[in-house]
Specification:
By secondary structure, the protein is an all-alpha fold. The protein has ten helices and no strands. Helix 2 (8-38) packs parallel to helix 4 (77-86). It is globular, with a radius of gyration of 21 Å.
Amino acid sequence: MKEIIQSPLLLALVSIGLIYILGFSLVYLKKAYSRCLEMGITKEELKKVIKSSVVFSIVPSLSIVVGLFALISVLGVVWSWWRLSVIGSLSYESLISSSVSTALGFSSNAEMLANATGREFGVVMILMSIGMLSGFLILIPFGKKLSMSVNKTENSSTWKYVLSGTFMLCLFAVYVPVLLFGDTIQAAVMLTGLVIAVGLGILAKKSPKLRWLGDFIMAFSMIGGMISSILWTSIF
C-alpha cells in the first residue's frame, strides 16, 4: 500500500486530473467574464465580485486543509490531496477508510497503512470513488425534477425546509453514532469540536464585532478538536 500511495504513477495521474479541473474552471471563468461584459456589467464590478469570491473561497478551505493533514496519516499525501480537492469530504473518506480497515481485519487505520497490500488499498480507492459517484448518478435522471419541485413550493409550502432538515438528520444518523460509540477518544474529540462550534456560533450571533467568527467556525472547531485529542489521549 505504501508503495502505491507514494508512487510517481499515482502522483502523475492525480496531477493530470487536477490540471484538467483547473483548466476546465479557467475556461468557464473566461466564458462567464465575457458574458458579463456583454450584459453591460463593468470591469470594476466584476473585479469586486472576483475579490469577494476569492475571500469566501479561502476561508472555508482552511477546514479542508486541516482535514488534509488528518487524512494524510491514513491515505498518504497524493490520494488525500486528490480526494479533498475534487469531490471528497473528510467525514466520508475517514468513514470509508475506517470501515474498510475493520472489514479487512486491521485494528486501526494506522495498521492498515503499515500492512495493507496494493489489492486491499485498491478496495479503498474503488469504494471512495464509486461510492461518491452515486449521488451524480441519481441526479442525472431526477435532479432537474427535484429542483423544479422545490422551486414550485418555495412560496406556498414548507416542504423544502422539511426536505433539507430530513437530509441533515440522515447525515447525523449515519455519522454521529459511528463517532460517539466507535471509540472513547474519538467521541471526546467530536464533542469538543461541537462545544467549540456552538460557542463560536453564539458569540458570532450576539456580538456584531465578532460576526466574522461565523466564517471560521468549521476551521476553528476542527483545529480545536485535533488539539484536544492530545489531552484526551493522555486521559483515556
